Structure formats: structure tokens, C-alpha cells
Amino acid sequence: MALQRTTFLLFSLALCVSAQDPVPCQDCQQLYLEHYAARNCTPVFDDTVSLCCPASFNCSTGPAVVREDEGCPYRGKVYAVGETVPVTNPCDAGCYCRPGTDGQLPKVECAVVECPSLFNPRKPFCRNLYNSELCCEVGEECTTPELPVDKEPATATGAETTPAPEGTTTQAKPEANIRSTASCTAEDKEYKLGDKIYFTNESCQTCVCTENYTDAFGPNCTTIDCGMDYRYAQQLRDGCTPIYFRNRCCSIDWICPNSERVKPLADQPTESEATTGSHCKLGDIVVPRNASAPTDNCNLNCLCVTPPDLTCVQYPDCDEAAKALETRILQ
């Protein structure tokens, strides 16, 4: 999947829409493209739309629909019902192909890893330490707070490291020598070695602060796996469109054909007028490129940015959504 993600990043989508000028290369993003990757769609380029970003996607090359008795597709292989599925996300465990019911597809079912830090409050003056290959913290670092000279203990313990609680995975050591004074800077915020780094501008990336940290795509950094290809196989098969929250990684909901959340345009193109690559479709709704479809909530925008699917983004409030819609920019 790492190769698939790396390749897909090269075909990142521009979500800065202009009806007059091609989209410049620096505006290419991949934030709202997880469903295209999950469907194994291929990018289509058009210099009149963008100088280097995909103008649309061809999804006819995606995997065929799997019958209920055939199993669960994952990373190019179909796993039989009841078979273990080797999901690569370290925060998913015990994954297997669950039988489909009531006409639904078989589904990859996983147990979500529950980290000790979710249940054990962090001790005073301590912080968790992380490894980029593991889901949970791998230990903690505790320091003695500085005291006035006349109150300082005769034997200060300084910094000490405590291993992760018994029963947690600790084969891999923290990514950093925690006693080093080195640190990382990301988006004007300082991190200590061993800290986990999250990004606002690259919300699908996460890193662990190490001495060789460079940026969101450097060493000890990973792309967040939303699991769209195995968690939402039914929605993908049914032709649904994901809803993303503004500038956040991973979808928060879905809009499916015949949903009341999206309305047809007053002057909607006919099926014969709609052309592949220049229109988006959701069921019977057809939207030309650069146009938006009416929605049931003023904080939800659904635009035809890169066909064949609408790009739907939810905003914190209606004012932000209206501003984004006015400028035709999905942020």
C-alpha cells in the first residue's frame, strides 16, 4: 500500500478551482482523494484544466464488484469469508473477512487497538514516547521539575525513562535518544524527541520527532491510513461520495445516490449532454465541472472539482462554507 500511496501522491488533485486559468502545480493536493485511491482509479490529465494535476479520474479500471460468496478484496487480493486479512494499519488488529448479510458485501472487520494512554492518565512531568511503526506509545520520559536552590533535593534524579505498561508491544524502541537536547519544529511549534507530530497543512501525515526529522514527508513520517478501501467497501460499491471536514484527513460521512442531502441543479444537464471527464454524477444528479450542487445544509459544499465524483466538504459554519463556495476553493 505504501507504493500505491506514493504513486497516488504524484497524481494529487488540485482543489483550487478556476474557470479561467489552469490550476498551478503548487495547488495540487490529495486531501480529498482517498476514495479514488481505494477504487483504483487512474488520473486523466488535461493542460487546459491543470498544468500538472489530474483533470479527472477514470474509474473503469477499478476492481470488479465482488459477489457476497467471494470474499473481501484488500490490496489487490480477495480473501475468503472467515480468512485473516493482513491489514497494514498498526491501529487495527485481528482483521478478518466477515460474511455479508442482507445483500451487503463481505466486510473486513478489525478490532481497534486501545492504547494504555487512553485509560491511564499521564503522570505529572511525564510525556509519552512514540515509534512511527507502532500505534501506541512505547514508553514515557519523566523529568524532575526544577526547584529553587535552597529547596533542591540533595540527589536529583533528572530524567528517567519508564517502559510501556506490561502487555503492550515494545519490540521497537522509541525513534529518538530521549536524553538528547535536540528538538523538531513543525508549523512553528516545537517538539521534543519522541513526540508525535500532527500537521494542520498536511493533515494526512504524521511523524515522530527524531534527530533526522526534516518535514511532513521525511524520515519516520507516515501517511494516515483511513482504511477507506476495507472499511467502506459497501459505500464504494454503491457509488456513494465521501464527505470530508475542511482540511481534515479521512471522511466523516457519506452521501449516496438518491440521498436528500444533495439536490439536482435547476438547469441540470441531461444524460446525453453529460460527458465523461467534464461532469460529476451522484445517482441521477449531474453537475458540470466548476459548478456546485445544492445541499441540505448551508455548511456543506458539494462541487464538481475533478470528475467523476463530487467533492463534498463540510465547514465549521455556514459563513466559511459560503466564502469557500464564492471563491470556489475547497480548503
Automatic annotation (TrEMBL):
The gene is LOC108679796. Residues 147-173 are annotated as: Disordered. It comes from the Eukaryota. Residues 154-170 have a biased composition (Low complexity). This is Kielin/chordin-like protein. Residues 1-19 form the signal peptide. Keywords: Signal.
